[in-house]
Design goal:
This protein has about 130 residues and is of the alpha+beta class. The protein has helices at about 20, 30-45, 45-50, 65-75, and strands at about 75-85, 90-95, 100-115, 115-125. It has 4 helices and 4 strands. InterPro entries: NTF2-like_dom_sf (IPR032710), YchJ-like_M (IPR048469).
Length: about 130
């Protein structure tokens, strides 16, 4: 049986890519890796992970129930990382909404490292 490819479109097996990060067995070592794991968390509806990996300074702006609702309402199709430099990642997340309409979420995200842990701070929608 072939290994399932990771939701983040890295080309790696889920078990060797985002799964260990989502399960807390491994830390994301660079912002791109955290961003990929967060996309995967949307795809598998892991709102707890999304809240936990949002920086404390902006966490109050993110409601777990709203995140879960948005995650469930959409079918996550593909992730394209366009640029990852220092603590910034620009990406496009492709998804279909509950009406089957295609969308592209294009974002330039900022991350912050505290200790060995990276956190999502915020993003600019492009």
């Amino acid at each position: 049986m072939a290994a399932r490819l990771c939701y983040c479109c890295s080309g790696a097996a889920f078990s060797n890519c985002c799964e260990p990060i989502l399960e807390g067995r491994q830390l994301a070592i660079v912002p791109e890796q955290l961003m990929r794991s967060r996309y995967t968390a949307f795809a598998i509806q892991n709102a707890d992970y999304l809240v936990a990996t949002t920086h404390i300074s902006t966490r109050k702006h993110h409601n777990k129930e709203d995140i879960l609702d948005w995650s469930k309402a959409n079918q996550w199709i593909k992730l394209s990382v366009l640029e990852a430099v220092d603590n910034k990642v620009r990406f496009k997340a492709y998804y279909k909404d509950e009406n089957g309409i295609d969308h592209v979420h294009h974002e330039y995200s900022t991350f912050k490292q505290e200790g060995e842990q990276w956190y999502y701070v915020d993003g600019t929608f492009l």
